[in-house]
Design brief:
flat, Asp-tRNA(Asn)/Glu-tRNA(Gln) amidotransferase subunit GatC, Histone, subunit A, 35% helix, 3 helices, mainly alpha
C-alpha cells in the first residue's frame, strides 16, 4: 500500500488544511516512509508471543475517593448568570 498525492489532498481537505504542491509531495513521501517502516513488523516471528495491551504493567495511580462536604448552593449560585429554585437556569435545548 502506498500513499499518493491524491490521498494527501483528500486528508488535507478533511482536516481543512491548505497545502502547497511541494508540501503535498513531502507529506506523501513521509507517509510512505512510515508505512514502509511499519511493514517491517510483518517480517517478525511472533509465534508463541503472548498478546499484551501494554509493554509495561499498569496500575491505578489515583487516590481513594473520600466524602467531603460540598459548597453551599448559595455560594455556587453566585457564579450563575441566572438561577431558578436553587438551580442554574440555562436556555432550553429541546422544544
Amino acid at each position: 500500500m502506498s500513499i499518493t498525492v491524491k490521498d494527501v489532498e483528500h486528508v488535507a481537505a478533511l482536516a481543512r488544511l491548505e497545502l502547497t504542491e511541494e508540501e503535498k509531495d513531502v507529506y506523501a513521501g513521509q507517509l510512505n516512509a512510515i508505512l514502509k517502516y511499519a511493514e517491517q513488523l510483518n517480517a517478525l516471528d511472533t509465534e508463541g508471543v503472548e498478546p499484551t495491551s501494554h509493554a509495561v504493567p499498569l496500575f491505578n495511580v489515583m487516590r481513594e475517593d473520600t466524602v467531603k462536604p460540598s459548597i453551599p448552593v448559595e455560594v455556587a449560585m453566585l457564579n450563575a448568570p441566572e438561577e431558578e429554585d436553587g438551580q442554574f437556569k440555562v436556555p432550553a435545548v429541546l422544544e
